[in-house]
Amino acid sequence: AARQTLVKKKDEIFNNPSYQVLGDPKAKIAFAEFMDYNCGYCKHAYKDLAELVAEKKNVKIVLIDSPILGDSSVLAAKYALAARDFGPGKYQAYHAALMQFTGPKTEENLKKLATDNGMDPEKLKEAAMKPAIQDQINKNMALFRDLDLGGTPAFLTPDRIINNFMGKDTLMQI
Q: Burial, 44: exposed, middle or buried (Cβ in 10 Å; 0-12, 13-18, 19+)?
């Protein structure tokens, strides 16, 4: 059933304007990552993914915020998704900051990361609380369940589901 969902929703996953991308959005080689900002494995994978898109200009990583590790994960995902409305590259910068941040994802820390990345923290908080942001998280989590993913990080290619991260070199061989 998960494989059928992937085939059926491939275009929605890999060409969805609601999702943000690392790398060239028009790249021919595409992966999607379901990730959580409190996931240690996701943080480790981020470093490799950032290196991968820097080294390989023909690769894109579609980022699907999937807050499965509690309320602070949901809050962090809301702030990250709201950052996309602050201009090109703001989501990617905030995403990178969250992936590199090792402290708790409290409102105070999320606001500080906003300031550090050139965004008004109060406006970001306000944007993060809009119903459209929660709607996007709900859609992401429904897709997570429909694909029967076991946790984060989880990766997709247009024809394959990978329930863990094996490093950038292995990912490129798939």
A: middle
Chain centroid to CA 129: how far?
18
Average pLDDT estimate for 120-140: 98
When pLDDT is cut at 50, 70 and 90, the band that residue 168 belongs to is confident
Q: Are 155 and 162 in contact (CB under 8 A)?
A: yes
CB-CB contact of 92 with 46 (8 Å): no
Q: How do 20-23 and 29-35 pair as beta strands?
A: unpaired
CA–CA separation, 78 and 35 (whole Å): 13
Q: Are 79 and 119 in contact (CB under 8 A)?
A: no
Tell me the C-alpha distance between 155 and 163, whole Å. 6
C-alpha angle 57/34/69, rounded to 5°? 140
Residue 20 reports pLDDT greater than 90: yes
pTM, entire model:
0.94
Cβ proximity of 130 and 82 under 8 Å: yes
3-state secondary structure of 153: coil
In tens, the pLDDT along 79-120 reads: 999 999 999 999 999 999 999 999 999 999 999 999 999 999
